[in-house]
Amino acid sequence: MHTAVFLDRDGTINEEMGYLNHIDRFMLIPGAVAAIRSINESGLKAVVVTNQSGVARGYFPKELIDQVHQKMSGLLEEGGAFLDGIYTCTHAPPSKGKSGGCGCRKPKIGLMKQAAQELNLDLEKSYVVGDRFKDVEMARNAGAKAILVLTGYGKGEIEFLGPSSKVQVDFVAKNLEEAVKWILADTKGQTERAKGQRKPQRSQRAQRKANVEMAEIDRLSNRIIGLAIETHRQLGPGLLESAYQQSLAYELSKNNIPFELEKKIPVTYKLVNIDCAYRADMVVDNKILLELKSVDRLLPIHKAQVLTYLKLSGLKLGMLINFNVTLLRRGIRRIIL
Ligand SMILES: [Mg+2]
User: Fold this and answer.
1) What is the pLDDT of residue 273?
2) How many domains does the chain have?
């Protein structure tokens, strides 16, 4: 979807002349061509939305509007600029005090919606530039940002209608050129803000996932400790490692906890897999590495061995279990990489 700059015509692109009832009365506001050219160069769509009720009022024929738009497009083209679309409402406003009328006269958003459909525009990311509060109101109705220019009716609107206006302007610009500069800076800010927002969202999701995984591993390690204590209670201290290993395996199987005994740990050296015959005593549910010992006391080298196994296997949690103790809890170390 594209972002558009919706431009009012009279008083914004060309000088406000009251009813533009003759082609000779069409004159561009200085800087308008350059402003539209920068919209074009930025990749945003430049779309004119204009009320021309002079047709319904019988002040000039519809053909004059086509002539004026041809002239406008020609002058823009000479300056290397173009419009992606021109949308016109030729209807009369609803009679005073009555609602209704067409759905396309500003501040209604019929024309913006039509443009959005035909040009694949995202109205909520788009901008409206105009010299009247009607333009501002249309922007608000469509969820777009509003820039009021001080050309055309702009100064009077701000001075006399501004204080009582129900709708807020996002920016007041001296003219279209200044308005476009503000818009281009704002879109840049939007992109950066969006990037900035996306990153933490992604890392928050990743963090939540990691937390859930860690909580699962934590629960699993508590179950292993419970079963190791049960094994120790049955066997007592001082037996061979292999006896504990087989008995603990029996407890794990009985509790439907998957595990692998003597799991090979591959070593990659200079991109080559080397079989060093390293084996972890047990890997439980592909998550926790167990190193069983039956020693007088655990030494730093035992912890270093588990850390090496963790690094090589890509697992995060290891448990060092020394069965040769009176109280097994004292013989268990949890080692986190
Ligand atoms: Mg206007």
Assistant:
1) 73
2) 2
131 an active-site residue? no
Stretch (H or E) spanning 87: strand 85-89
Question: Order of strands across the sheet with 45-51?
Answer: 85-89, 45-51, 4-7, 127-130, 145-149, 171-173
* 213 part of a folded domain: no
CA R_g for the chain: 37
Give every strand in the sheet of 259-264, ordered side by side: 259-264, 279-284, 288-293, 317-322, 332-336
pLDDT band at 21; cut points 50, 70, 90: confident
Q: How far apart are CA 89 and CA 160, in angstroms?
A: 26
CA distance 9 to 47: 10
φ, ψ at 296 (rounded to 5°): -60, -45
| Active-site pick, 8, 84, 135, 281 | 8
Last residue of a domain, one of 141, 174, 207: 174
**Which residues are found with C-beta within 5 Å of the ion, ligand 1?**
8, 10-11, 131
Domain final position from 111, 146, 174 = 174
**Residue 234 and residue 162 share a domain:** no
148 Cα: distance to centroid of ligand 1 (angstroms): 10
> Does the annotation mark 10 as catalytic?
yes
Q: How far is the CA of 98 from the centre of ligand 1 (A)?
A: 23
147 and 50 in a common domain: yes
Q: What are phi and psi of 311, to 5 degrees?
A: -60, -45
In a domain, 154, yes or no: yes
The predicted structure's pLDDT at residue 97: 64
What pLDDT was estimated at residue 200?
A: 58
Same domain as 169, residue 242: no
Write out pLDDT tens, residues 51-70: 998 888 888 888 999 999 99
Task: Say yes or no: 169 and 226 in one domain.
Answer: no
Q: In degrees, to the nearest 5, what angle opens at C-alpha 299 toward C-alphas 297 and 305?
A: 125
Task: List the domain range (segments joined by +) for residue 32.
Answer: 4-174
CATH number at residue 110: 3.40.50.1000
